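Record format v2
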Amino acid sequence: MRKTRFIALMLAVVLVLTAGLLAAGCGDDTTATTTGSTDTSAATDNSETTEATAPAEAVTIKIGAAGPFTGQLAKIGIDALNAVKMAVDDFNASGAMPGVTVEVVEADDGADPAKAASVAEKLASDEAVVGVVGPMTSSAVKAALPIYDEGLVPLVTQSATNDELSEGGYVVFHRTAPKDGIQGPSIAKFMVDDLSVKKVFIIDDKGTYSQGLADQVDKALSDAGIAVERAQITPEDKDFSAVLTKVKSAAPDVLFMPIPSPAQAAAIAKQMVSMGFEAQLAGADGLKDPTEFIKNAGGATEGAYATSLGPMPEEVPAAQDMLTRFIAKYTETSLFTAQSYEATMVLLDAVKQAGVVDGKVDRQAVNDALGSTAYTGILGFPISFTPEGDLAAGGIYIIQVQGDKFVQVKGIKLQ
Amino acid sequence: MEIQQQIVNALTLGSVYALFALGYSMVYGILEMLNFAHGEVFMIGGFIGYLVALPFVEGGTLTANPALVIVLMLIAAAVGCSAVGVTIEFLAYRPLRKAARLAPLISALGVSILLQNVVGVITNYRARPYATDLLLPHSWSVKIGSATIGPERLLVIIVGAVALIGLDLFINRTKLGKAMRATSQDREAAAFMGISVNKIISTTFLVGSALAGIGGVLTGLYYTQVDFAMGFALGMKAFTAAVLGGIGNLRGAVLGAFILGGAETFGSAFISTTYKDVIAFSLLIILLLLKPSGLLGQQTPVKV
């Protein structure tokens, strides 16, 4: 008896080691990571199954976390990745799916469409991957979507808002953020109704997200008879004097900059101060980062408007516990911290609905479950998807820089 | 009139590119290698400046004379970056001096990626703000015609000009400069004449990196923030400027920098902000087609 138990234990150890080796050797760009807590739970699961006659065999499934973990947008990418990991740890620890251990596969796309497509290939070809959180940028989703769709890998993006993404008929696409088609006109309406603008200058960065949103607002404003002037920058630009000189001579009521980099937007605001002129600043959800857009701007962005897709997590009671734990572990939150956690939980909820069949979780079943999702998590409102994969209900909020933080000034409900 | 303001913008941008391009050109002139890590030295200079200014900024006010703080920032960045530059040369390039030409190039790329990511991790991939509005308040602006020259631009242009002229004098008028020129022309012959080639190469990195450090601080003041990727983005432009002027030729690098700065600024001001880079790089291609060795570059006959 003692001897057989010893042999069983040894076998379990060998199995775990082999699994570890296989996971470690599975790719160069994508690396499987198991966090400490899941490691130990996996080990106890193993010893339990060899000892007792637990019916549930230990199953390890993976979800991909795709986003820019290097490059210009690395900051929001890494914070999102950490939130995904935290959600997975919480899910594993909650015992929602006994015997199942979820692992996170990091898929860094550097916000580069070409890289997004190549990491999508890797995730799609890994049978253990049952879903993906991300990619985070619209350009990356656009490039990767056909590949995920072909491999039937369900994806839930927490932040890609470009309209076209849900118009391609891709069944695997889901997003927990409202699309620009809703955000753009809402911002334009706010500028017309509440700010009474006569002339607006729009700066975008040529990216799918930025230019798409700029087009939306441009169209809505032009339809309302507001004069619009536009200019473009690139995400690498640091010197905005040429563009700002144009803004200065245009003298607009609002300078609208729907760019995804709060740091860049803060630099534009500060360089505007250096050039000695003022304009009411406004942006979209991309600017909602207190450290980069408010603290680093040293007052230059005071009074600027931005948007929050869904309520600001800081003002939702249900999100407080997660945010507190996140800050305790990683010192600060950023743009999509709570949203990434929520998107991960939505995906994991669908995984749970799909359940384990024949020792694995079926991608099609997860996708079907996502289609009929009705999940209320830390953001405090029920998340469900339209047949195209858009967020069915929710709202966007106009927020404003007041002192050292963003304050919600107006809520706009989706229909 | 917008055009006067845009001329000032072009001059400022040109000065930033020039300080950066010189480092590329100096190293290429002597070692015939592209020092990709130069951009990261520049970026580190920006961060050193940020760290030096940090204790003087308290709750939105400055606790010391702004001129003193800026001088301290510039000196610290120059000294710090010299050390970084010389160390990079010693550790990553010197052991490969006799290796195939591609080896140091790859090594340089490696150092560049390494430094960028180390700083990225340390800074949590966040940008760091420069208190430009405190150090150089807008009220110090100078008005020429309809153009407003903010103090940070004035500083970039003046310090840039002083550094460029100083470097030109150093290379052309001093004994050390002469030795550098000799090493650049023919390393072996220079060694035969009793020039310590290793010392000259170290000096080149020291001077080039000091300029990069100064450039990093000036750029931080001008752009109002520094981040871990700034060297890479700017490096592409500065490298273009160096090639445009004839890589290896220092006056050429400066000329190339101002042409590129002008092309970008006027391109986005009067043609289209969307095609700013297209305009700048089309210009580069046309110029290189007409003059393959760059504006001031010399056609060197192939050594046999």
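Chain B has a mean pLDDT of 88.
Residues 2-290 of chain B form a domain with the ABC transporter involved in vitamin B12 uptake, BtuC fold (CATH 1.10.3470).
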